[in-house]
Amino acid sequence: xxxxxxxxRTASWIAAALCAWLLLSGPPAAAGEPAIVVLGDSLTAxxxxxxxxxxxxxxxAALRAEGHAWRVIDAGVSGDTSAGGxxxxxxxxxxxxxxxxxxxxxxxxxxxxxxEQLEANLDAILARIRAAGAAALLAGMEAPRNxxxxxxxxxxxxxxxxxxxxxxxxxxxxxxGVAMKPALNQADGIHPxxxxxxEIVRRILPHVVALVTGRKGG
Length: 218
Description:
Blueprint: H1 9-25, E1 35-40, H2 42-45, H3 55-65, E2 71-76, H4 82-87, H5 89-93, E3 99-103, H6 106-111, H7 115-131, E4 135-139, H8 149-166, E5 169-171, H9 194-212
Parallel strand pairs: 1-2, 1-3, 3-4, 4-5
């Protein structure tokens, strides 16, 4: 029997990415228990942290502590851009979440990608979330300062326009109160540590609670 050909690098990468996403997302939501999916990048995937210390796990714990029986599914993939998030959106919506928290754009900004591209991708994501019958919470992001004030203003405005256009809940800056604070970040100065995640959850929690109380099961 002839040997089976080795898989291509692209196929191997896709398989590895899918396996990683499935492991991070955890088991399906319990029957009758609504779900929030966090569609994000390394900031929500828990880069450098134990899974139980990542943003989705801590957000779920905070919701349950306030009496909201919602499961939070981690759909964060480190290194993902807004284009990557759009490409895997069907996987995210397959869980039939009641709410999708969209945290994307940090890697677009780090790469200096066109803000028009960021806007088109997030626009498509929000439209498809609405079409699926889920609510969205859009978390904004800031661009690195080294690309200049004009790029930063244009980047910020993308989130503001989309929140208004789609009439979705909006949290202007996901890293509010954490960015540029060494005590709340890992050694790279970019990714939040355990204390930083706790601060993000504390600040964004009222916005999430406002959404879950408006959905069935909240």
